[in-house]
Amino acid sequence: MADAIQNKTKRCNHCKEVKPIECFVKNKIRKDGYHDECKACQKEWRAKNKEKAAKKWKIYYKKNKEKINENKKNTPRQIKKKQQRKENPIERNIKKKYQNIIKIIE
């Protein structure tokens, strides 16, 4: 296993081909840090099993709805939106006007 990482190649468990490490998706859980199937095999599986994958996602979503929604609330983009809402609306409008003027000048 260590030799494969040093050579930057890995064997796909699905198609059994040795491919460059760039052909594999990163996966923190795995010892080597990459998924055991190459991107092409994963894409092929998803194309064949769209309905099965959709059903799995729906089941997962129902079980973890609160967790998923909580994670969505804490993204950097959402945090920035919350901070902007807290600002004084007049100050926010002034900032927007100045940003537009700066863009025109540039």
List strands and helices in order, with pairings.
Blueprint: H1 2-6, E1 9-11, E2 18-20, E3 24-26, E4 34-38, H2 39-48, H3 50-63, H4 65-73, H5 76-86, H6 89-105
Antiparallel strand pairs: 1-2, 3-4
If helices are DSSP runs of H or I spanning 4 or more residues, what is the number of helices?
6
Largest sheet: 2 strands, antiparallel
Strand order of the largest sheet: 1-2
- Rg (CA only): 23 Å
Spans of at least 5 consecutive residues whose pLDDT stays below 50 are: none
Note the beta-strand portion: 5-15%
The helix-and-strand class reads: alpha+beta
* N- and C-termini, Cα separation: 54 Å
- Shape label: elongated
Helix content: 55-70%
Strands, count = 4
Q: How many domains?
A: 2
SSE ordering: HEEEEHHHHH
Mean of the pLDDT scores? 83
What multimeric state do the chains show?
A: single chain
Structural features, described:
The chain has 106 residues and is of the alpha+beta class. The chain folds into 2 domains: 46 residues, Wheat Germ Agglutinin (Isolectin 2), domain 1 (2-Layer Sandwich), CATH 3.30.60; 57 residues, no CATH class. It has 6 helices and 4 strands; from the N terminus they run αββββααααα. It has a two-stranded antiparallel sheet with strand order 1-2. The protein has a two-stranded antiparallel ribbon with strand order 3-4. A hairpin with a 6-residue loop joins strand 1 and strand 2. The mean pLDDT is 83.
